[in-house]
Structure formats: structure tokens, C-alpha cells
Amino acid sequence: MSEVEARKPQESLQERLAQVVELLHQYQLLEVRSSEDPSAILDDSFRQQGLTELKQRLDELHPADIAFILEALPLEERLTIWSLVQTEQDGDILLEVSDAVRETLIADMDDQEILAVAGQLDADELADLAPDLPRDVVHELMEALDAQQRERVRSALSYEEDQVGALMDFEMVTIRDDVSLEVVLRYLRRLKELPGHTDKLFVVDYDGILKGILPIKRLLVNDPERLVAEVMASEPVAFHPDNDAYEAAQAFERYDLISAPVVDKNGKLIGRLTIDEIVDLIREESESEVLNMAGLREDEDVFASVWKSVRNRWTWLATNLVTAFVASRVIGLFEGSIEKLVALAALMPIVAGIGGNSGNQTITMIVRAMALGQLNASSTARLLRKELGVALCNGLIWGGVIGVVAYYLYNSWSLGLVMMGAMTLNLLLAALMGVLIPMTLQRFGRDPAMGSSVLITAMTDSGGFFIFLGLATLFLL
């Protein structure tokens, strides 16, 4: 961390972004003036000074802060900032930015620049970056690695992105259990630095089989003459590389882990999971769920081209158009009823809107429960009964309220009763669909959140219109 960073711990990301944008705009303005009047030596001097200030400010920032700034800038300005970043920071920044932004940055680099950046990364970081790199660059990069690094990269790439093996880190400290704590301390002092997030040392035998862990706090507070075997924890939380990464994230939260060993089927230590990877995984999953519920297929660069954004959004917009057409045809079935009682046109959006809101609440709870692994076959029926009970209570309460309002507005107690009945039935439909939609998507191997808000809105709109107008036709006309 630079001295400037240390002096300004209270400085927010937005303030840093504002400072960089202001310096960038000043530099661009002077550059334009200089290009229009090449004889303006003073402007050129100021332009160089502005460029120096901008580079100095970027040099003071953490790679994660620069990644945030790059994501917040339009493409042209983003590439200008990217060209001013110190080369040794490029790899860390590429790992921090979103996939969509990373694509634009890599497209602006030539093969030699990419190779220079990738050469500074560890095996697990290379595995994260490799899918976004040109195929020929990846091949050349693999050839340049030593045998151990090459094997580690191939190992990490062999796992799916939602498996522990794709997230594991290969940098760790291992020790034997038959040495004293004093020997361990001397060994650690000889190391240049410890791998990040090292809160424990991994105890292995001569074959690399994991026997336990030695937390750093135990190492520091126990008698240096004691053996590792006497102090270590012999049954640590450990993962296999093919374990589900999201289940591992839940374990990290449940047991307050900072790091954990990863072992193969024979118990041999092959890597470790660290909290930074888990936090990134949770953030990406959260962002993905928000996008999926809105019907977006993948992470979208805010400043992506119009055509790219259109391609990303058209599928569920088309689906929504179809469902909206279905809802309009439902209304068309009752045109005669609406002509006879105009109040129906004013009241029916209320039934549909409340149903959509309630359905989205139910879907959010169900998707969350699925993500946390809290749903199973035995609990599904109970959960469905619970959600239907909540919908029934809300329908009777709020349907009664809007029924009274309808009575006072239109002086018709029968219209009020129809309103209450329609709202209650539509909330029950919303609860039923709120449970069934994500569970059906999961059964067919899809993300339970994928387009769920679009689907539930379609069901409650069409269903709400049909229920309300149908009841009105039966009992009011």
C-alpha cells in the first residue's frame, strides 16, 4: 500500500474514481487543444504534466481499485487508462475485472504483452485467465512454463468452474509432524514471505498425505519444544477437488475458515482453498442470480456496444412479448364484460400487480433456500403448504382492504367481494408458481433463478386477469 493510500483510509472508491476521471478529462482536453494547434508549446507542457499526474495517481491505487475504475469508464476512456497502468499490475487487474471488461482489455493487447503479463502469475491465476486468452497465446504460454507449473495449470483447467479444483491455490506451507515448533519457526523465518491468507500450516507425511493442520496461533502460543504432532489439529475441514464450490463456500461461512486443504481421493494434499477465492465466488454468484432473474444470460459490460447488449437481452424480451400477448388475449376474452362495467379496467391491474410482487417474494425465498441446500424432497411439500398459507392470509387481509376501497369508490359490495376473491386466488397462484418454477428449472438442469421474475410475472398477469374478469363475469353481469 502506498503512502498516499495509508494517509487516506477514508477515501471511498467513488472519490478515487472521480479524481481519476477529472485528471483524465483534463488530459484529454489539453490533448485536443494541442492537436488543433501544434505550435502551442505551453499546452503541450501542461499536457505532459497532466499525463504525469494521471499516471502517478494510478500508480498509487490498488489493482482492485483500478479494476473498479476501468469497469466504470466507457471503452475509449477505459483503454486510455489501461495504457497508463504499470505493466506489473496488469495481471492482477485482469483477474479483478469482470469477464466482459477483461475481454475488451485483452483485445487491446498484443501477444507479447499478454505473454509478459501471464508470466507474472501463479498457476491458479493462469488457469483463471486462460479461458479468455487467444488459443495460440495459451499454447505458447504453456510451452514456456516449467513441468510443475504446466501440470498445475492443466490440473486446474481440468475442473468445471463450479468445482473446488478450479479455485484451489497451489502455494502453501507444509511441515512434518515429528519436528518441534522451534524447527517450524526457524523454517518460516527462512522463507521470503508466506503465501497470502496463511492462517495454518499443513502437516503431511513423506508421501504428501495430509495428517492434520497447525494453526499459526497454536504455533505462536505453545512451548517451542513441543512437537507438531502434539499441537496440531488432526481432523481438519478438507475438500476434494471435484466437490461443489458453492458447498465449499457454505462450509467456509459455517466454520469461519480462512483457508482449507484440498486432497485427492487418496488423502494426498494437492492444494488449498482460500477466503479470497470464496468471496469472489460468492460475489459472482450473487451478481449472476440478479442477472438471471431479470433474464440476462451473462455478465454484461455496462458500456458494451448496442448490438452486444441487444444480443444479451433479446431472448427473455421475446419471451416476455409472447407472455404479454397471452395476457392481452385473456383480457380480449372479456371485452364485453369490461364494456358493461368500466370499473373492471381500472381495478384489474391491481390484482395482477400484487400477485406479481408476491410471486417474486416467494421465488426469491425458494432460490435462496436452494442455493443454501436447505430444500429436499421431504421439505418441499411442507414449504409449499407454508407458502400457500401465507398467500391465503395475505389475500384475505389485503383483498379485504381493496374490497372495501372498491365498495366506497363504486358503491358496490358485490364488486368488493369479487375483488377480494380475485386477489386471494391470484396470490395463491403466485405462491404455487413461485415454488414450482424454480424447482422445475432445477429438475431440467437449469439455473433456478434463470428468468424466474419474467415467468412469474407472466403467470400472475395472465392468471390475475383471467381470475378477476372471470369472477366479475359470473357474479356481476
TrEMBL record:
<comment type="function">
    <text>Acts as a magnesium transporter.</text>
</comment>
<feature type="transmembrane region" description="Helical">
    <location>
        <begin position="416"/>
        <end position="441"/>
    </location>
</feature>
<dbReference type="InterPro" id="IPR000644">
    <property type="entry name" value="CBS_dom"/>
</dbReference>
<keyword id="KW-1003">Cell membrane</keyword>
<keyword id="KW-1133">Transmembrane helix</keyword>
<dbReference type="InterPro" id="IPR046342">
    <property type="entry name" value="CBS_dom_sf"/>
</dbReference>
<keyword id="KW-0129">CBS domain</keyword>
<keyword id="KW-0460">Magnesium</keyword>
<dbReference type="GO" id="GO:0015095">
    <property type="term" value="F:magnesium ion transmembrane transporter activity"/>
</dbReference>
<dbReference type="Pfam" id="PF00571">
    <property type="entry name" value="CBS"/>
</dbReference>
<keyword id="KW-0813">Transport</keyword>
<dbReference type="InterPro" id="IPR006668">
    <property type="entry name" value="Mg_transptr_MgtE_intracell_dom"/>
</dbReference>
<dbReference type="InterPro" id="IPR006667">
    <property type="entry name" value="SLC41_membr_dom"/>
</dbReference>
<dbReference type="InterPro" id="IPR038076">
    <property type="entry name" value="MgtE_N_sf"/>
</dbReference>
<keyword id="KW-0812">Transmembrane</keyword>
<dbReference type="InterPro" id="IPR006669">
    <property type="entry name" value="MgtE_transporter"/>
</dbReference>
<feature type="transmembrane region" description="Helical">
    <location>
        <begin position="453"/>
        <end position="476"/>
    </location>
</feature>
<dbReference type="GO" id="GO:0046872">
    <property type="term" value="F:metal ion binding"/>
</dbReference>
<keyword id="KW-0479">Metal-binding</keyword>
<dbReference type="Pfam" id="PF03448">
    <property type="entry name" value="MgtE_N"/>
</dbReference>
<dbReference type="Pfam" id="PF01769">
    <property type="entry name" value="MgtE"/>
</dbReference>
<comment type="subunit">
    <text>Homodimer.</text>
</comment>
<feature type="domain" description="CBS">
    <location>
        <begin position="232"/>
        <end position="288"/>
    </location>
</feature>
<protein>
    <recommendedName>
        <fullName>Magnesium transporter MgtE</fullName>
    </recommendedName>
</protein>
<feature type="transmembrane region" description="Helical">
    <location>
        <begin position="388"/>
        <end position="410"/>
    </location>
</feature>
<keyword id="KW-0472">Membrane</keyword>
<dbReference type="GO" id="GO:0005886">
    <property type="term" value="C:plasma membrane"/>
</dbReference>
<comment type="similarity">
    <text>Belongs to the SLC41A transporter family.</text>
</comment>
<dbReference type="InterPro" id="IPR036739">
    <property type="entry name" value="SLC41_membr_dom_sf"/>
</dbReference>
